[in-house]
Amino acid sequence: MSVQWRKSSYSGSANDDVCVELGRLAPGAGVGVRDSKDPDGGHLTLTVAQFGSMIEQVKRHPAR
Questions:
Q1: Which of 46, 50, 53, 60 has the most Cβ atoms closer than 10 angstroms to its Cβ?
Q2: pLDDT at 48
């Protein structure tokens, strides 16, 4: 199965150092998170539950 990566809508400005892409991995394998500036550099694999928990933490504690 080929992973279709989706770039964050917050990524991509000319001076952006933080570029994130997400991809749904094979069924049951979870969610992949990678640096869109280095697509061949590998990815972090999270379960759907872990990914949801991470998003909740980001919402509660946004970067300043």
A1: 46
A2: 94
